[in-house]
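Because showing beats explaining, we think one record worth quoting, sequence and backbone structure tokens together, and here it is:
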Amino acid sequence: QVQLQESGPGLVKPSQTLSLTCTVSGGSITSSNYAWSWIRQSPGKALEWMGVIADDGSTYYSPSLKSRTSITRDTSKNQFSLHLSSVTPEDTAVYYCARDLGGDYVYDYWGQGTQVTVSS
């Protein structure tokens, strides 16, 4: 029922900002029961939680990424976005948006993921 779709460029140059948008349908990003997360995975590595935006717009970030990460939202479009600055090739990964159940790092709906490569 709920669908999430990531969009954005698949190639980003080092030192630039990686920006992705998640478009949500079938559910509101302002619903009090859920939060909305960005997660990524590099080949051979575990899923890495990056950050989340709550129903009221509050944001929380992974300590390892906090200095470079920003999550914003556009409630009129039912979208939330990821901005990761100063990227390096280590940021190459598949990036997912997902709905968080109660802020417990448990997700019931995921986007299909989008590959982002950082390369010059």
